[in-house]
Amino acid sequence: MERTSDSPPPSPTPSPEAQQDEDYVFRAQIALTEFGLRYWKYAGYLVGGVLLVAAGWGGYNSYRLGRAEEEFAKISAIDFLMPKIDQMAMYGLGPKDDPNDAARMSDLEEGARRYEAIAKEASGSAATIAWLKAADAWTRAGKKEAAVAANAAAGTTGGGDLTTFVADSVRVGDLVDAGKAADAEALLRDMSGRYSGFFAEEALIQLASLQADQDKLIEAKATYVEITGRFSTSNDLKALTELAARLGQPVPVAPTPAGAPAEAPAPAPAQ
Q1: Which of 14, 207, 248, 262 is the most buried (most CB within 10 A)?
Q2: pLDDT band, very low/low/confident/very high, at 55 (cuts 50, 70, 90)
Q3: CA 142 to CA 99: how far, in whole Å?
Q4: d(CA 121, CA 127)
Q5: Contact 224/247 with Cβ under 8 angstroms?
């Protein structure tokens, strides 16, 4: 057919390749639409699952915190029932307990057993504290072996650094009292690696002090050098200064606070 000047130009016929591409696009759109219509509920399940996991974690966290509060409440209840220490004993002017008072000794032992019962069911810091309180009660009752066992258990509860460090330090004291200084040194060395910051430095300070107590001055000085090399700024400057004076080592210098004015130079001597 002949084209006139007023008639629109004929539409170009698409190539077979273009028609095939358009067909693929159309099929893909239809497939996605069908998938969305068919599986929309699974998307809902997915979102619901995420919300369920979040709710489950929140519920578990609330349960964990609630359980910890309950455990500490049980410990406090036993604290309230324990025989009170005489005020004179608090100032070191008398014994905590009269070993001839059978009723008092019985109450202390019962308190120790109750602390241990809580410790065995609790976890984390609550378990550590319960074991430590049990050890203290056994000590007051004159049951040293039971106290040592409770202190040892306190160091295995996986509580926070503070409570676990206290348990480990008490265990060191038990070992020293039992004449096992080498085991105490090994534990302090282990503590200096397991902990960091303040607790690691404290373990090394205790180690150097213990070595000095045994006249192992070369080892003690080496431990002091290790402390000053590992911790450029001491976390316990007072204890480290006392240790330095004891070992005849250079006294550590306190760091200058940021922003503090520089020390003014000494005035020149008068002419």
Answers
A1: 207
A2: very low
A3: 8
A4: 8
A5: yes
Q: Which two tokens stand for residue 26?
A: 């159309």
Nearest-5° Cα angle at 171, 169 to 177: 110
What's the CA gap between 35 and 40, in Å, rounded? 8
Enter the tokens of residue 69: 């509060």
Residue-by-residue DSSP string for the chain: -PPPSSSPPPPPPPPHHHHHHHHHHHHHHHHHHHHHHHHHHHHHHHHHHHHHHHHHHHHHHHHHHHHHHHHHHHHHHHHHHSPPPPHHHHTTSS-SS-TT-HHHHHHHHHHHHHHHHHHHH--HHHHHHHHHHHHHHHHHTT-HHHHHHHHHHHTTS---HHHHHHHHHHHHHHHHHTT-HHHHHHHHHHHHHH--HHHHHHHHHHHHHHHHHTT-HHHHHHHHHHHHHH-SS-S-HHHHHHHHHHHT-PPPPPPPPTTPPPPPPPPPPP-
Of the listed ranges 33-37, 160-164, 249-253, the least confidently predicted one is 33-37
Contact 131, 117 (CB under 8 A): no
Q: What Rg value do the Cα atoms of the chain yield, rounded?
A: 36
CATH fold of 82-247 reads 1.25.40
The more confidently predicted of residues 44 and 258 is 258
36-47 tens-digit pLDDT: 444 444 444 434
What are the structural domain ranges in the chain?
A: 82-247
By residue count, the chain amounts to 271
The string of pLDDT tens digits covering residues 111-143 is: 999 999 998 988 888 888 888 899 889 989 999
